[in-house]
Structures are given as C-alpha cells and as structure tokens.
Fold this sequence. Notes:
The protein is of the alpha+beta class. 27% of the residues lie in helices and 21% in strands. The chain is built from 7 helices and 10 strands. The strands form 3 sheets. It has a 5-stranded antiparallel beta sheet with strand order 3-4-5-6-7. Strands 9-8-10 form a 3-stranded parallel beta sheet. A two-stranded antiparallel ribbon has the order 1-2.
Amino acid sequence: GLWQDFKSSRTGNFIHLVAQVEGVRHDVAVKLLRAKLLDEPENLFLEATVSTGQKSISDPTVDEEFKNFKKINISHFDKIANIPERAAINFIRSRKLEKFKFYFAESGKYKNRLVIPYVENGLSYYFQARSMSPYGMKYLNPTSVECGVKSSDILFPFVEEMPYVIVTEGPLDAITLQVNGYNATCTQGSHMSSAQLEKLKGRNIIMSYDNDFAGE
C-alpha cells in the first residue's frame, strides 16, 4: 500500500498518491475515495473527477501545520513522558545538534515525528518530519498542495553571501555541517532540479551526497 516517486523523493500510502495525482488535499482525497467506493465503485479507476477549483478551498499552509508542532526544549527531558519525544531529544543529542531549533509534532498527519523547519527571515516556509520509529517511512515531506511549494524548487536555508556551499541530500546533514561552522544546504534527495541549480549558480559547490548508488 505504499509508493515512492524516486525523482521527487515523495512517498506515501494510496490516499497520499490520490491526493498527489489529483492535486488536492489529503482530506479531499479521502472524501473522493469514499464517494467512489460507496456511491459509484464501478468508476473508481476511471479518470479523475475532482475539479481544479477544489484546490483553493482553505488549503492548509505551513503556518497552520505548525500549530500541531511544539518547540523542543532539551532541558525539559526529565519531565517528558512521551516516548517518541524523548527519542527525538536523544537523537538530537546523539548528533550534537542542540544548537538547532527543532520541533516535535504532537498531533496531525506528522504526529510523533521530529520536525526540521526551513526558516528564512524568521518565517518557516517548509519542513521535513523524521520518524523516531524503525518501522514505516523514515521521512515525510509536505506536498506542494499543503505548503504551496515543491520540495524540488527549494534549498535548505544557507548563507548566500558566502562564496562556497556544501550540498547534501538531507537537511540533517546540512544542519550538522552548519552547527560545525560550514556553509551547507540540501536538495531533499539525490536529484537536483533546474530550479535548485539556478539558485546555486555562480558559487563554488562542494557535493556531499550519500556514499551509495543514488548519491554517486
């Protein structure tokens, strides 16, 4: 019941796939499938029936999703009873990333995940949610329907005035380099889009992708 788009690094279940293909929110995809299964099952796998006008009906934004998140306070570790939240803090400590401001998802689609915010000029415009469980999908990224921007169109915030930048696959690698004094960004996977290349043009680029087949 799971799928992965290797080009964009997007993953999900069947409902997420319907939402992605139709270009609608997750809850709209649920209603679509429910209607097709219960009201007209013979039309389930026919062409899409969702109109493009439904995209604009109170679409969630990153700000709205952040209402389900709370800032992680590592000093409160002993007072926290939630096991996934404690695991998130232990993960941060193990990577020595205490300097970075992480969030923890208390509810919603990303519940019990470590949230890595993409912040620029004090505003969060994207995030990645990492599971603390060894089972299921490790990372969940918001879709363009949810946040209004494609993951392939953005880079993890870095100091654009510096003459060089280290490019990694994921934000945790970029953060690890940043807290150790290096200018780094990430491309949300091992595929670099033309939009990302355009933003990196004119800089000395140091590639630091994973040492595996995709990274090579």
